[in-house]
Specification:
The protein is α+β, with helices and mostly antiparallel strands. Among the domains are: about 10-85; about 95-185, Nucleic acid-binding proteins (OB fold (Dihydrolipoamide Acetyltransferase, E2P)), CATH 2.40.50. It has 16 helices and nine strands. It has helices at about 10-25, 30-50, 55-85, 145-155, 185-205, 210-215, 225-235, 245-260, 265-280, 285-300, 310-325, 330-355, 360-385, 390-415, 425-445, 455-480; strands spanning about 100-105, 110, 115-125, 130-135, 135-140, 160-170, 170-185, 385-390, 450. The chain has a five-stranded mixed β-barrel with strand order 1-3-5-7-6. Helix 1 (about 10-25) runs parallel beside helix 11 (about 310-325) and helix 13 (about 360-385) crosses helix 14 (about 390-415).
Length: about 475
Amino acid sequence: MVIFPRVTPVLCAAGGAAAGFYCSGSSSPLWLFAVTVVLAVVLCFFQSLFPLCRDRRLLQITVALCAAFTAGLVFGIGAAGSARNDVRFGIPEEKITALEGVLLEDPRIISGGRAMAVLSLRRSAGDEGLRVSAKGEVTVFFPEENALKLREFGRGTAVFTEGRLRYSQTGWTYSAQSMHIVKTASVVERMRTGIRLNLINRFDGKSWGGLALALLLGIKDNLDTSLSVLYRNAGCSYILALSGMHLAVIASLIAFLLKKPLGLKVSAVIGALLICLYCFLVGPMPSLNRAALMYILGVLVILGALPKEPMSILSISFLIQIAVTPSAGNSLSFILSYLALAGILVIGQPLYSLLAGKIPDFLLQPLTASCGAFLATSGVSCYAFGILIPMGIVTGLVLVPLTTVFMIGSMVCLLLDTFSLSALLNMPMSLLYQLMEKTASAAGRVPDISVSAPFIPLALSIVLSLLIVIFENKRRAVLLRLRPFS
């Protein structure tokens, strides 16, 4: 049964928050203040109409929706202010010779063997031993000789590094020439880093191990760069980024193992705890955190604490995420993740209903979901990358099931490795890896569409989406009229 989204106060609040969050950077504060005042005046006007209106329920709903949008707009503006990375070095930038801070993420190995990580500043140093307090986040590139040592210490480690500071369009970056460990991370963080290193070692030496680490833990240090290029050319690079698809595989396994012996509610709660532990192990990833947050909200639905409305759950997830981690809202993966799921719910479901019975269901469900996600994200994708790859809709129908099997095989391989039996799966996993590689390679040969004006595909996607929704609404209206005669 298809559940169509309803316009609710929480949905309006999320829409207002999105408008405030993403428009506050490009619009003047005076303009946003004027919009807020106008909305407040409109609310007062509707409120004054209460005694004169016959349909007071409709007026109350309108006032509630407008109030929710206004509150969301103010909330979004505040979150956008918190998301800004205001770096303060304490001394002139040209005099800085060293920085001290804490690693906010696990160091990533990049080209040339160097390591890259985001540093939360504590102090900056200048000539003659001058040290002052500093604040903000800076991306640091560490030399190759420090890369492995950094990965062993991991996130939460305090470091002191000497080098050179630079500024680019993406913000402040720092090229380190030397590095010293000031303080190790907490016990919990060191345990987490140890588990990650153990998993990396388990997949070491396997031709498909780099892909397994990318799909299970989001570690792309050992991922073959040529495979990443093939997936990008095929329009399926989202498969390599941890998101709801990957979490759904893990959640399904948890449900399969726990639902029958423990029941739906208990298994859902335990599953939520395991998902939280998994996200802590993987690290902060906006798209994965969105999926995990929606899973937890889904558990609340099962427990009866929230209504079963997917768009409302998506809206609540958005509001919580930009409140807790506002900086994540500026990442492209965050934006595409929410747009894709909104497209599946708002566009994909009506399209599924329109085509039901005309295409086999096992193909129709993933196809309409892919079309909905594609239409919702096409404008942003064109703006960010300048190309459009419609072939990705079809390629995903093949690669997503193969990726699901590959993930399950990787987890089974970890289990067998405990008993030194993982070699049994090495050949099947290698063949599956080659099949996925050849599929992406074949799809990548289909030419993409270069886009110089992103507003054109954005306008076309909006028009197509509206047509799908309008046709489906008309079809449903006809069915409702004919139902008494059936």
